[in-house]
Write a structure and sequence with these properties.
Alpha-Beta Plaits; four-stranded antiparallel beta sheet; three-stranded mixed beta sheet; Replication protein; DNA binding; Rep
């Protein structure tokens, strides 16, 4: 195993790693070693279509380069404990065991085992992809259970004002506070119970960025309902929910959201999947567009 010269002086990297490796069969070894939920799973190994092998390899290489760059940016020699992405895939889980290389001859896929992974969906493109695949399957199962129980789905999008130079961490903290208030404060809780009763919901946090307006975090929320609403009813509820959301945003230290950017729409004919962490795609009649 080669050591990236950029990490030779990085204490987060175990220099002895290259001296402790062995190749084993994928059938002999278990799933890719990880100490983070959904970062690796036995059922996801070797599922890549052989026809797309070249594209997959190029994509993985690109993700690994991004991970290396992320580690370089976040590495601080003054800190004893580094960000986990600095050592992602570079340290052994069990120091007494060697690093294994799992190879599946049926599809030509090889992976390392007994390595720690950071499991960060925000700063590690490699872990982000693996986790997103697990969440994609979990959401598909939730949508199937929803249909089986005769429930209906609507998608709520919540946005906040954002400007160039805004601190993303501060924005997300205030947004989370506003969303918590939307679900728990008495006035909004009573409104939801009377006008828009949800059996449950799933939230995806998406963050975009532009050189003109900086970071643009927003929420996509799949609402599971026991009642199907007409388009006109949803428009009325959308307007009323906007007033509640705007109130919570202002009280949480955010500006008042733009009325045009938020939305509430029916998802009964749509199938939603997370195919990127923080990104929600909606597929309707075979077509896809990014929210």
């Amino acid at each position: 195993m080669q050591i990236n010269p950029k990490y030779r002086n990085n204490p987060a990297f175990n220099k002895a790693l290259s001296a402790h490796s062995e190749v084993t069969s994928a059938k002999k070894m278990g799933a890719l070693g990880t100490n983070t939920k959904s970062c690796s799973n036995r059922s996801t190994q070797g599922l890549q279509p052989s026809a797309d092998t070249a594209k997959i390899k190029a994509y993985r290489k690109f993700n690994i380069k991004l991970k290396e760059r992320s580690g370089e940016i976040l590495f601080n020699p003054k800190n004893k404990n580094q960000n986990r992405v600095c050592g992602c895939g570079k340290r052994r889980i069990d120091k007494e065991m060697p690093v294994g290389v799992q190879f599946d001859a049926s599809n030509g896929v090889a992976r390392y085992s007994n390595l720690q992974y950071c499991g960060s969906v925000w700063v590690c493109p490699d872990c982000s992809y693996k986790i997103s695949q697990e969440r994609k399957k979990e959401l598909a199962e939730a949508m199937k259970a929803c249909r089986d129980k005769g429930l209906h789905v609507a998608m709520l999008t919540l946005t906040v004002p954002h400007y160039l130079g805004d601190d993303l961490k501060t924005l997300l903290k205030k947004m989370s506070k506003a969303k918590h208030s939307l679900w728990t404060n008495r006035n909004s809780r009573e409104y939801l119970a009377d006008q828009f009763q949800m059996m449950g919901h799933i939230t995806a946090t998406e963050v975009k960025y532009s050189d003109n307006n900086g970071f643009h975090p927003h929420f996509h929320i799949l609402c599971f309902l026991d009642k199907q609403y007409s388009k006109e009813d949803l428009q009325t509820i959308e307007s009323e929910l906007y007033e509640l959301w705007a109130e919570k945003c202002v009280k949480s230290g955010l500006g008042k959201p733009n009325r045009r950017n938020g939305s509430l729409e029916s998802g009964q004919e749509k199938y939603a999947v997370f195919d990127n962490v923080g990104s929600l795609r909606i597929s309707t009649n075979g077509s896809k567009y990014k929210r």
